Amino acid sequence: MRLIHTPKSRLISEIEDLKLKIAELQEADYLLRIQRDLTLHLSGIERLENILQLCLETAIRVSGMDSGGIYVAEEGTGDWLLAVHAGLDAEFVARVGRYPAGSLNIRTMTSGVPFYSNYQSAEIENRTDSRKSDSIRAFAAIPIPHRDRIIACLNVSSHILEEIPAAARMSLETIAGQMGQSIVRARYEEALRRSEKRFRDLTDSLDVGIYRSVPGDGGRFVESNEAHIKMLGYSSLEELRNLRVVDVYESSPERREFLDALETLGFVRHREICLRRRNGNLFIASVSAVAIRDSEGRLAAIDGIVEDVSERKKAEEALETRERTYRALFEQSNDAVLLFNPQGLTIDANRKAVDMLGRSKESLLQSHFLEQIAFPEREDALRKVHSVIEGIPVPLYERTARRGDGTEFPAEVNLSLVRDPEGRPLFLQSIVRDISERKKAENAMRAALGEKEVLIREIHHRVKNNMQVIISLLRLQARSIADPERREIFAVTQDRIRSMALVHEKLYHSRDLSGIDFKSYIQSLVSHLGSSAGLSAAARVRIELELDDVELNINKAVPCGLILNELISNAFKYAFPEGRTGTIRIRLEALSPGRVRLTVADDGVGLPETVDPHQPETLGLQIVCDLARQIDAEIGIERRKGTAYTLVF
């Protein structure tokens, strides 16, 4: 045998490669065994929750992740629910526990394509939805298909690892493929169990007894269903056959009357009889029976149906009690209550209604409800009645009511519809409250608020005027300063004060003192700063505005105005040196309710690398950073092709 001499380094490399391949084979074998065990376990699990829990635990184990969850599409609404989860804190689960149909996350989960990423990537870092969490570093979403649609989504994540290992991705997708059929199977089985349970509940709830008896010697039961046997307190038909029928009756004469009716009429319908159970307890039963005669016309047998109506009798008594209670509440209510049929005729009214409307109860009954409403509002009243009858809820509303003597008063009305058991309109109930005193109080309060609004507007006007005086004083002072740099400081200070004065001016002119139209504010501020920059700068630098309609309160408008003033002024001064031309773009975007994105970007020379925007040395950038923190804004800065500042607050 010829010996081949291999260099030592090459031999070590081959050994290391061999070890790596062995490890990969062992890892692949481990993953295959986990998938095989999962397949075996899934075949023996019936409940959907247990299937999802097992699959999630397996997915976390094979991927090396430490947390995750499985979303399942809710049948009917289309929303996606977090059915099971592990390793996620309660606050995070509360935020992401349900996604409405059509949301961004739903589109990701139903795309049919597995999604792998980490939360440090630009794509995820720029997200503002509730999935983002600073504590999660790696994330994967694997859609779970069944036939031609996505029915669920497997999510795994890690608070430690930076990404999903490549070797585990195929296993995750295989697990997702296994889950689809198991989820559908579990749903079918759960639906079947629910259907079987409904059938069992229906059967078990029947309390109607069916029997056949023969007359003579007190009567004997020959046939009886389970409900009848249990109704009488026995455990078997054999026990019941040893009993005389007459012994079931509380009264022998009542038994005789029952047989006489059968002899005469041949049938009995819903006769209420007091019967006795095996333990001696009595109950009221509704008995219907038909006579079975022999060839000679003699009574040979009795076929009957027995229904225990004890509870119904109690319910009827309770209903009578409730009716008396309702009548007492109806009559003693502090509000007027009127009932009228779908045709509009009044069928009942309580004492308060009689007093409030100044009419007798006799004149109210059978009068049309429109007679109790001021003429200009009758058409609207008819529309509301039709809406309620059609099943459209009508919220509490105000109406001008009309008394019998023609005088009118403001009223608050609650209109509702009462239907019969078949769902047909039975009558409408109108609860009317006289709000004359409340209206007087509201008018007085409205007048006081009007005076307060005038005072607040005057305050904003005076604050704006005082700031204008300060600006004028600074301008006069600057004229006496020979040093250009010192004069520039005064000019910058004037612009900053003017940006604040503009907020008060907008508030003074706004219809609602709670906030200002920030779109209009930006347009006014940009117009002034363009003029302040001089004709040369205004000619060289174009300003582009892309503004949504956004309203800000004064606590955010003033800081945002100062930030805009600094950023736009800096762009005019430093972005386009030596006569360069360019563009300043300002974008105001309304995001989700209560969230705004403000962007100021230019295509100038860009921010020098020596400038740290988060630890600025210049006063202007310090103002920007401090004010951004004041309004809890997330600030982002880009240096590509100029400078772009983005604030989200």
Number of discrete domains: 5
Q: What do we call the CATH homologous superfamily of the largest domain? A: GAF domain
Cα separation of the termini: 79 Å
CATH architecture annotation of the largest domain: 2-Layer Sandwich
What is the molecular shape? flat
* Beta fraction: 15-25%
* CATH domain class name of the largest domain: Alpha Beta
CA gyration radius, whole angstroms: 42 Å
Mean pLDDT: 80
Oligomer category: single chain
Tally of DSSP helical segments: 19
- Strand tally is 23
Main β-sheet, in a few words? 6 strands, antiparallel
CATH-derived topology of the largest domain? Beta-Lactamase
Give the strand order of the largest sheet, numbering strands 1, 2, ... along the chain: 3-2-1-6-5-4
Short description:
The protein is α+β, with helices and mostly antiparallel strands. The protein is built from 19 helices and 23 strands. The chain has five domains: 157 residues, Beta-Lactamase, CATH 3.30.450.40; 106 residues, PAS domain (Beta-Lactamase), CATH 3.30.450; 102 residues, PAS domain (Beta-Lactamase, 2-Layer Sandwich), CATH 3.30.450.20; 67 residues, no CATH class; 136 residues, Heat Shock Protein 90 (2-Layer Sandwich).
Overview of the structural elements:
The protein is α+β, with helices and mostly antiparallel strands. It has five domains: 38-194, Beta-Lactamase, CATH 3.30.450; 208-313, Beta-Lactamase; 333-434, 2-Layer Sandwich (Beta-Lactamase); 438-504, no CATH class; 514-649, Heat Shock Protein 90 (2-Layer Sandwich). Helices cover 47% and strands 24% of the residues. It is built from 19 helices and 23 strands. A six-stranded antiparallel beta sheet has the order 3-2-1-6-5-4, sandwiched between helices. α1 (8-42) runs parallel beside α6 and α2 runs antiparallel to α6 (166-205). The protein is flat and about 135 Å long. The two termini are 79 Å apart. The model is unreliable at 1-5 and 122-131 (pLDDT under 50).
